[in-house]
Amino acid sequence: MKHLLTFTAGLTLALSGADRPNILFIFSDDHAPNAISCYPGGLFDEIAPTKGIDRIASEGMRFDRSYCTNAICGPSRASILTGKHSHLNGFIDNNSSYFDGLQTTFPDLLRDAGYTTAMIGKWHLHSNPIGFDYWEILPGQGAYYNPDFIQMDNTRKRFQGHCNDLVTQKGLTWLKQAAASKKPFMAMVQYKAPHRNWAPAFRHINMFDDVTMPEPETLFDNYENRSSVLKEHAMGIQDHMSWGNDMKMQGENLFPSHFTGRGNGQFNRLTDQDKKTVISAYEDENKQFIKDMRAGKLDQKAITRWKYQRYIKDYLAVIQSMDEGIAKILKHLDDSGLAKNTIVIYSSDQGFYLGEHGWYDKRWMFEESLMMPFVVRWPGKIKPGSVSNAIIQNIDYGPTFLELAGAKIPESMQGKSLVPIFKAAGKKPEGWRDSIYYRYSGERTHNVAAHDGVRTADHKIFWVPKTKEHQLFDMKEDPQEMKSVHNDPAYTAVFKKMKQELDSARKKYRVHSAIIGEPREGEWWMKRHQSMNKNAKKPHDLLFIGDSITQGWEGSGKGTWGKYYGNRKALNLGISGDRTEHVIWRLDNGNLRNQKKAKAAVVMIGTNNTGHIMQDPTEVRDGVERIVSTLRARCPQAKILLLGVFPRGVNPDDAKRKNNLEINKLISELHNGQRIHYLDISDKFLTAEGILTKEVMPDALHPRQKGYEIWAEAIEPKLKEFGL
Ligand code: SGN
Ligand code: CA
Predict the structure, then answer these.
(1) N or C end of the chain, less CB within 10 A?
(2) Which atom of ligand 1 approaches the CA of 124 most closely?
């Protein structure tokens, strides 16, 4: 595959020569289109204009229907890199996921196509970047003041200053170097701003002191007429703002019934001198607030309003230094002559609530967080000042960049290139999608229930598994999404159509049970999972991953296990009855926590997907692929021995055996002889006629002692090859 791509790329090079544009992809974190002045409908266009970003739009194109796959940080970034929805690229949430950078990503393909690539700033995918000639990233969420950056040798270095200014500087430094290279470049310059805790550069802290910010109409939303899960949120301006971190108060939390208690981590990074600067910047307002509170002058609503003012001013102020940085970078492109052949994109990982529905944060499929800003400039190709209404999504970015580079877009990418829209002044090409699919998996943080849905130009539907209900919104009649009309008889036909749209989106994007990680019900299962997590606290060299057949090493296979693996630091991660989806969940929830140094993992899974529901082999393949991908990322040194699913049923014409055979055909393609080794040992269990005898597997599914002996012998040469 690699060879083929290089070949194609070489060909393109010859065809389009030096014409291929540079790609500068500027990205931020939590920047709502409502806080960007070139986007219509925001409340702050006059008060807090974003001149740098606006320049890209006025010289290029603005997309008004740009959406994310999953409105949180890591998942959005992973969708961009892979061109795939979260359930397929494996990064479904910020807490449990771990990015497999060895899967197909656009930076890697651009590099194959002759680009030089860089990634600077917020990354937040837990594993280090792969596919870049240069990278320098913030650890995790990163810090606003005097941030650390992880260097390419994996050391951390601290830099003095505000994170936005540092990202700009580092971006400029790299761009200057890249210009000297003959290759076209792709640079990702990724700001932390305006992520919580909204800590502005000192020069901007007081810029809105004399302004009273307008409030959104829905600041005091009571969540009526929609699912009861809305009320359960923990992202309210009223109840979930912290005293120190969010509200920049000093000392002990004086009003614990109104503020949560978290201290200010950013503040603690400052020198004593700088601490004084920050304290004095907020001091007068803080004193006044405390005085009014003590005097009982402020009722609940007034307190919420005060919090909103503090929040929104810091949020808008922290954008200012980023926007200045963007303007500076654009100026550098002008001055250096790069502007002409550089396509510039600005976007942010998802939107954000600026008090709408009484919220901050994101996660919901409501418009404010579902939307991503997307503006793009491409001199001579994109008509300046154009606006597109095409429905686009972050999975489209990778395919777009690849087309710009003249590289092949892998079929496995689910997005579509936006280049035809760029070239047609924003008009969508024939056959362009009518809806996007969204899926949020749920996380404890901020307590937003999992949901998935689709958004068309006029409607939005989503399904909440927790309460087993649909929500339906008429985006024309009710753009603020204040009333779900799923029960409204006037919407019967629309509701039916939107449910169909959701069904077909799930099919189209391969959302099926084998790939959606899930724990099993039943106490015994969770107990075994936890006991495996306990065992996994100790590092092991050799991991066995699977279902009852793997678990059976503790039963019928015990003697053989002792003989072969007793002295080899081996760990059994098999649970009886598991399907791919359960293993996916386990691997992301503790089974691999301390297995970074594992040398090998033996995977055999899928027969229960066949046995329980005769699952379509292509679906089981997706599940197995995710398991292998997760292992590859979390155990970066391990070779993965992927075994063909063992034969089942006595005779060769057994329907379930045949399904397993189909699965094997598909998963054998995951073999690459590097990290992943596929091995089918089925024949060793069978007679020459293909019969599974009672001696080997008495129930024609589970091996007895002899079966385990056969298994151990068959994989021994591979384990030796892996250095065990
Ligand atoms: C932190 C924030 C949350 C935020 C998540 C995810 N808390 O946990 O408010 O929702 O990040 O944000 S903080 O007080 O530590 O800032 S994301 O952009 O990474 O998805
Ligand atoms: Ca974010």
Answers:
(1) N
(2) 19
